[in-house]
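Holo model, adenosine-5'-diphosphate. Inputs:
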Amino acid sequence: MKNLLPEYFGCMVFDDKVMQARLAPDVYNSLQRTIAHGRSLNLSVANEVASAMKDWAVELGATHYTHWFQPMTGITAEKHDSFISPDKDGRVIMEFSGKELVRGESDASSFPSGGLRATFEARGYTAWDATSYAFIKDGVLCIPTAFCSYGGEALDQKTPLLRSMEAINRQALRVLKLFGNENVTSVKTTVGAEQEYFLVDKDLFQQRKDLIYTGRTLFGSKPPKGQELEDHYFGVIKPRVQAFMKELNEELWKLGVLAKTEHNEAAPSQHELAPIYDTTNIAADHNQLTMEIMQKLAKKHDMVCLLHEKPFAGVNGSGKHNNWSISTNTGVNLLEPGDTPAANAQFLLFLCAIIKAVDDYQDLLRISVASASNDHRLGAGEAPPAVVSIFLGDELTEILESIEKDSPYGAKEKELMRVGVHTLPKFPKDTTDRNRTSPFAFTGNKFEFRMVGSSSSISGSNVVINTAVAESLRLFADELENASDFETALHSLIKRVITKHKRIIFNGNGYDDAWTKEAEKRGLCNLKSTPEALPYFVAKKNVALFTAHKVFTEKEMYSRYEILLESYCKLVNIEARTMADMSMKDILPAISEYSQTLSNTILSKKSVCESLDCSYEQSTLTEICELLSKAYKHTRDLNKLLISAGKIAETQALATYYHDKVLTKMEALRKDVDALENVVSADYWPFPTYGDLLFGI
Ligand code: ADP
Ligand code: MG
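Output:
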């Protein structure tokens, strides 16, 4: 059978091939210049592009178009407009103008703005990100856009991401020039986002209010079998899941998403999809699409895709490994150790820029992954702790040490590590060195940031990485541009950075408690929860960073801080209410009924013969009654706490309250209910168990 993949890959994308075929050469060239240099598109070119795009989309069955954007809700938003427009004879024609392509008006009032949007000004607008191709999804032409308030403030994930890419481009070019890379005209960051997810049976899902309302189980005792046999990771994929994955790949390929690998993950019913990396903003768009299509297709296969970071307590959580690198328009990956001493010196400087960035902005990296849902995963035994550190591997660490201490490097040659364009020895290229427990690991030619949660947009983390590294590069360029002797200055700069920032390097087991203690000694921050971490977002140094690189205005930062706090509070509130509801309406009544069954059994046994043994019924009944009253009390307390929450006006205080009081109470309630699950007859348990959910496909 002929493999049609190369033919249908990207068939729903208005990509370069389509543009070349459908646009007049001058229009095409003008659009390309806009894309390459970020210039604004003139209206006549925009009209031509829009018209060609519409014809192409209509041929493929589209009737509508939408500006597709990523507001601060974490999911994508779209408002469909049809192409139709009445003509003189009372009929309709299909139209799409340049103005409609480049800019859309949108009512911003229903999206989170964190106080940015004045009440009298509800308008927002969307603007085409021409570097990300338009595509057709469900008969709608989708135009990837950025979303801003009418005053120009970012209301989305994409705007700051594009700004941060520009910031790192600006500063990296300055540094590259110092190394004589005259032909490099732009630098882009690249990302490959590995996506983890769970699949559960749709019928079972429908029976659990917690999954329906919150995406995670709020109750559930561990099944007799978990992941201890390690038989799921890379295991044979079940036919039902295989059918889903096949269709998922095909849908993603049609949309030009480079879905590459798929496999079972560590936990039962957990899976992963990894794409081939792309330019960061495109990778972010594609990851949003991937999550959306995963959820849509799972339903079609009678399953539900759970993107929550910790759908099951005590079972591995899901993350999103953000593989990050930076490369030039001439095709050089700047995190690939080079073949020549000059290339290596340059590599070392970029490496140092990242080490410094991660150390200086640990708090921001932590915040970029902070959410009520990811809090359950970070530090939960199988994910990186809330402490940020870098894994470099032994070889690279040794090289840095010998530079720092002016000591000889290498077992045989014992060369002195003198960073210079002419003297630096070749580095061993060791890509096999792997440490799966590090939050920020060097993996040969890229860094893998593993703290990102499975449900969140990757934009936030990449905004931080890009901007923080841009800041290191800015300081380096300032210093080196003014040096009288480049090589000496370079050597002393690198040495200084290593000495100052080596505390962030940790090659050991990141999941070990000993590391958390050691990290504290090293002065690294350990921001355990979202409410604890978020205030650092608007710390003076962080405001200075983002404003200096024009990624956020101070106002935008405060608005984001507010949005993050608000969504934290809302999420915990929904969870707590769901828990109380399940407890009062489903769990407590079911258990009460079971206790009645037990008492009846005891009574009837005794009526037959006074001396019949009722030890099972009696002790179970005693245990159940005790736990039942405790669970009932916790439920009432939880409801009281929620009422009191309504009296707290200040958002930071409210978030802290939800964390300290509400979550703690939820844990207490869960503990008793899970204990009940272990003693109550399976026939009486009101919803599917962990065992049913995890092994139900
Ligand atoms: P694994 O981490 O599972 O061993 P790989 O190392 O092959 O797998 O790649 C993991 C992810 O890193 C993939 O999504 C891949 O496309 C991405 N990746 C590879 N090179 C780069 C790069 N230069 N920039 C960003 N991501 C990259
Ligand atoms: Mg990986």
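The CA atoms of residues 115 and 559 lie 6 Å apart. The chain has a mean pLDDT of 91.
Archived with the compound record.
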